[in-house]
Amino acid sequence: MTISIALARDENTDPDYNKPVAIKADADGMVAVERIASQSFAHRLEFRIPTKDGFITMCDYASVNGWNGKHIQTWLPKAK
């Protein structure tokens, strides 16, 4: 069974939430996403995403707290 989860970068836990990134994929275009323990009580799920410059943390979109003036990023700006 395949499950799809919309991921987001949350300004509440990631001050670089809107910075461009270059996601690192293998030759088949697959990204080795790793589920990690949540660093925020609000996030149900968190994932470590490999980039060409290290890793970023993303959470499930449904857990993002964007109601108090904070922002999220679901479509990632691409690093050149």
Number of helices: 0
The amount of helix comes to under 10%
Q: Using only CA atoms, what is the Rg?
A: 13 Å
- Per the principal axes of the C-alpha atoms, what is the gross shape? globular
Residue fraction in strands:
25-35%
* N-to-C CA distance: 35 Å
| Overall pLDDT confidence | 89
**Helix and strand succession?**
EEEEE
Strand order of the largest sheet: 2-3-4-1-5
Question: What is the multimeric organization of the chains shown?
Answer: single chain
Number of domains: 1
Unreliable parts: none
SSE-based structural type: mainly beta
How would you sum up the major sheet? 5 strands, antiparallel
Number of strands: 5
Structure description:
0% of the residues lie in helices and 28% in strands. It is mostly beta strands and 80 residues long. Strands 2-3-4-1-5 form a five-stranded antiparallel beta sheet, with no helix packed on it. The relative contact order is 0.35. It has one domain.
Helices and strands in order:
Elements: E1 7-10, E2 34-36, E3 46-51, E4 54-60, E5 72-73
Antiparallel strand pairs: 1-4, 1-5, 2-3, 3-4
